[in-house]
Write a structure and sequence with these properties.
alpha/beta; TIM Barrel; 2 domains; eleven-stranded parallel sheet; two-stranded antiparallel sheet; 13 strands; about 15% strand; globular
Length: about 350
């Protein structure tokens, strides 16, 4: 099982920390470093910086938000990052949720499956340097001459830049059953948050169904769970270090009645703790939200352990078929990265 680093966005990690940890991961021989975006720092700028600070480690967007960019703009960014990094880029994509899509980007959160599928198809068409013509339910390229406001002068174009890789891998972040199934059918990799190693079938079954329906196997998909991770002198201390991460996803990454992470926690049997956390977070009580998380919910969604227990916690993910464990280092971040890198 490979190990990657999820270095998120500001203010969880400062720009200096992102650079220092990415360089550390490069020196330690880790697999990849992933930069995300929400409604603050964007992913492309930071990945461009890291491409010049590292030599070997793969660089991934985890995730670039689909409503933030037209698919052709995303493909341009992917090609640019692949060239700047010497062929080390991995493109992670996600729709986010209605709160971000409609509140930040002014884009209706509708037909998520078809929007994602068509987006990926166009991105791959661009990166393959084919002349882009596309007639879908979500996107039409070029813009039809009779479209409102169109001049009729648009014409099919082909990407001028040439990526280093023949095929830049596309990862999707998905946890809803239908979205996970589609990931199994169309993606090269999968970046789930809250993959429970005690109930892996909840998410792995739909991934497998999607893959098999498309004539594929799970071996063709890089299963790369994103897991907040802390190593401390006691398990209780480690749990406290990862609480803010889980509370943020349950509380802020969605609306009260539509939060995919709360829904998944409920499917695992921890809905009460997840909803209490969400309610307190939405009321402005972040400390109370983190405190509402039960030990059981923390233990199935994070790695919070002592040095002696680290190998066993990592083994749980290896045993369920994780190909790449993408840790979100908490607490003493550099020490956590070193500990995970050195674990058997």
């Amino acid at each position: 099982m490979r190990v990657g680093l999820f270095l998120a966005y500001w203010p969880w990690f400062t720009p200096q920390e992102q650079v220092e940890l990415a360089v550390l991961g490069d020196e330690l021989g880790l697999d990849s470093v992933w930069i995300s975006e929400a409604w603050g720092q964007d992913a492309v700028s930071v990945l461009g910086l890291l491409s010049g600070k590292t030599q070997r480690i793969a660089l991934g967007s985890g995730l670039m938000q689909i409503p933030a960019r037209q698919p052709t703009a995303t493909a341009m960014a992917a090609a640019s990052l692949d060239v700047l990094s010497g062929g080390r880029f991995r493109l992670g994509l996600g729709l986010s949720g209605p709160q971000v899509s409609e509140g930040w980007y002014g884009t209706p959160f509708k037909r998520p499956l078809s929007r994602t599928r068509e987006y990926v198809e166009i991105v791959r068409m661009v990166l393959a340097r084919r002349t882009v013509t596309y007639d879908g339910s979500e996107w039409t390229l070029p813009l039809p001459a009779d479209a409102p406001g169109a001049t009729g002068l648009g014409r099919p174009l082909k990407l001028l830049a040439k990526p280093v890789q023949e095929r830049i891998p596309v990862y999707l972040g998905a946890i809803g059953p239908k979205a996970v199934e589609q990931t199994g059918a169309i993606a090269d990799g999968w970046l789930p948050f809250l993959l429970n190693p005690e109930q892996p079938e909840t998410l792995l079954d739909p991934l497998r169904r999607g893959a098999e329906a498309a004539g594929r196997s799970l071996a063709e998909i890089d299963v790369a769970p994103v897991v907040p991770t802390a190593v401390a002198e006691s398990v209780e201390q480690a749990r406290d270090l990862v609480r803010p991460w889980l509370a943020f996803y349950l509380g802020a990454m969605g609306a009260k009645d539509k939060n995919f992470y709360v829904e998944l926690a409920d499917r695992y049997g921890y809905g009460d703790a997840a909803r209490t956390c969400q309610e307190r977070f939405l009321d402005g009580d972040r400390v109370g939200a983190a405190a509402a998380l039960s030990d059981e919910l923390l233990d199935i969604s994070t790695i919070a352990t002592t040095p002696d227990g680290l190998a066993e916690r990592l083994e749980r993910y290896r045993a369920i078929g994780a190909d790449t464990l993408v840790i979100v280092p908490a607490g003493d971040k550099a020490a956590t990265v070193r500990a995970v890198a050195a674990a058997p």
